[in-house]
Input
Amino acid sequence: MYFKETYFYNFRNIQPERREWPVGLNLITGPNGAGKTNFLEGLNLISGWGPLEKSTVISDIIRWNGMDRGDRASLWGRVSGEEDSEIFASVTVRCSLKFDGKSSAASAVRSRIPVLSWLSGSISLIKGGASHRRALLDRVGALISPSYAGRLHDYRYFLRQKTALLRKSRDAAIMERSMLRVGAWLWTAREEILRMIAESIDEFEELLPRPVSLTFKRGGAGMDEKPLDDFKKSLSFSRDREKAAKIPLVGPQRDDIGIFCGPKEASVMLSRGQSSRVASALILASALVVERVLGRKPVLVFDEMASELDADGKLSTIEALGKTGCQIFAAATDPIFSDGVKLHNLRDGRFVRE
Ligand SMILES: Nc1ncnc2c1ncn2[C@@H]1O[C@H](COP(=O)(O)OP(=O)(O)O)[C@@H](O)[C@H]1O
Ligand SMILES: [Mg+2]
Output
């Protein structure tokens, strides 16, 4: 799928303008504060992913001193590719979505217009904490499996309850019974997603300084091959430590992906520029997984794409992005001049000519 046209009204600092978009790499450039991240957030909103930051208050999404007296932001997009459709998001105190004129749940929109966005600087996938790597698995999971997001939501609810019990030094066994099945389900799903990503990553070998291997690390576990038995055994093994620490130490909330270059961890082995390339390869491999499972090409969204890359790194990344045939939106302060790149210059929320 790809966005053929967009129109955002009363949304952050973006000026209302109907704008057409080609397939391929659309690089949005402009100085700090131009509205690059805001524009990418708009794409995230109309594709069912909500605001970029969980902490965002809706009143900040609506344009301050908005033209409609600031009571509503409207985002519209026309998509094409595997299907021609229109999507409309209306943001008031909440965000509601319409797909071809019919009210739609965010999860339904996500699988119709799959958008895979990576907004925190892709290098965090290699050099950052485990939460960044779990986020990649969760994004792919939410796109390719209708029940993934719901189960993750349930698991997190049980986890909060268990944490509250542990803090009060109360017995958490009731919560554990509810957590076991959904936790083991998440492990199985995440392992399968990572297996598919690992199968696809070699297709982007021009981005890999060395062959990369990926392993799934179950959080605080590893006592049995079978996920459910592993969860049970690891919980009873860690029970006293959990009581002492007053936080849950076993489960998907502590999962990670081991990323190795040869025998060594990629985070130790690779420079920042190399990490950035490997991270791009991981995201592109994830895009292939989404395409294979859903039968539609995802749109890729990157913020601050090229900041860590040298000239050669930029070229190989652009080449790899081009190979996917996906539509890509990326933001960067400086333009990259290359055949594969369509530049869109943004100033104070308005697209201007170079
Ligand atoms: N609701 C809003 N109404 C008007 N301007 C906003 C709103 N929310 C954020 N902004 C402005 O948008 C600008 C930031 O845009 P951003 O997309 O983060 O820039 P960048 O191009 O650096 O990514 C800031 O100057 C901020 O004040
Ligand atoms: Mg930004």
